Amino acid sequence: MADVTERMLALLSTLQTGRPFSGEELASRLAVSPRTVRRDVERLRGYGYPVETQPGPGGYYRLVAGRTMPPLVLDDDEAIAALLGLATLASARSDEEGTLDDAATRAYGKLDQFLPARLRPRAAALRASLETDRQRAPSVNPQALADLAEAISAQEIVSFDYTDRRGNALRRRVEPHRQVHLRLRWYLLGWDLDRDDWRVFRLDRVGDLVRTGVRHSSRTLPADTALAYLRQGLNAERRRVRLTVRAEPDEVADALKYQDARIERVADRETGVDVWLDSWEWLVLNLAFLDADFSISEPDDFRAACAAFARRLLAACE
Q: What is the pLDDT at residue 72?
């Protein structure tokens, strides 16, 4: 086997049967040399797998009983990413039990025991050095996310209680198509069978979710992506502002971090921005902290309002 990862998984799968294997038998099964088998066994030990060895005539390799559920095979960067991902999810605190952030908090404290032995000290050091700011966010049931994922995969109709923003609760029957995470909120894009149209549902307002077992046919999404459709709805009452900023994209993104903006480099130290805003004042307020030249290409009334404000500022300094 040329693929090392595939070979290691095959070796682990073989050893997890619990019985002993000679080096020659493993070499034959994996189509490698006995020397490669010895090297791969040492790799498994380095990952924390307790492989027992009996040398000499009649010798064998065997995975110690009771340890057939192995630690996660993560490299250093993957272990760090897993910890940081759990810490980020846990920071969206709802202070409720049984929610996604609660599950992330519990998993964050348990991950070390499933890591290879060589990575546990680094994971412990990272946890001890890390603090995350608590961000208030609506609670979401992780089981609901998992059930919806399976229903979407199976093209299965679901029903649930839904409370709208006015507090009205109704039972809904929906063909689920996508789950979307945006601005600390979880959403479901689905075809509402009672309204015969696409709808977006906040998952923190969903309760008593039931998979009906009834299948539905495929549908073409109402936009290029579910995220694009969600943004269209959220920005329906906002104005799109298009501008060019003479700064790096990362600098612009930092200045507009609380706004829904699409940011891309258009030239050296020149960034194109589409941002959706309620009023031109928000744009000026955000860009004032950036300390960079910019030009607004549309809409015209925003351009005129900013020009008038600039004249007032000049007059105030005379």
A: 59
